[in-house]
Amino acid sequence: MRFLVIIPASGTDGDLVALAEQSVRQAAPDADLVILRGAASHGAKLDLGRRYITFHDLVVTLDSDVVVWPGWREWIERTLADPLIVACGAPRVDDAWGLHPSMLAMSAERYRKAPSWSPSPGQDTGVAVCRWLEKDGYLQGAEAHNPFGYWQYWNPDAGIPGQMWWHLGSGSASRFHARCLVDREAWGRWRRRAAFVRAARERLAR
Question: φ, ψ for residue 62 (rounded to 5)?
Fold first, then answer.
């Protein structure tokens, strides 16, 4: 199957984008990868991604602070081969509904026809798309764990050896600046980001 991977980038996440791109190149070397930069919102960039669909079979949305591992592509293809499943990816860990656009895969045809990814009153980014998808079938989430300060998603059929992707999350786009020196939360986010980048680089270099 021909993959299109869409990564919205904030402009302050260059180190994370480089890791995300490297991981996709390793896990799915034949995938087409589009990195959408600029001032537009996350949802607006995902809407813009429609124009890059050509002869693709599947479209995957991927946050810039996600790295994928061998088995990720296979899980997507195998899961979406079930005609009852219309999308698969990361189950939301916030209070919103559905799958999280940080890692969400569906057929290219469904991506073309989906409603806007932008948030609406009372609904976060991508929730409207998930509700629209559910009208045609099931949404399949991977198994999520957060033992090291970032989310790890595993193939529920394979256990720990089946790790498929990592997601830093929780404000990871924040960059180091003077506020971090006095704001404990911002400093903690920076330390989490640095640890995530170090661990991902080490694993990608194996």
Answer: -140, 120
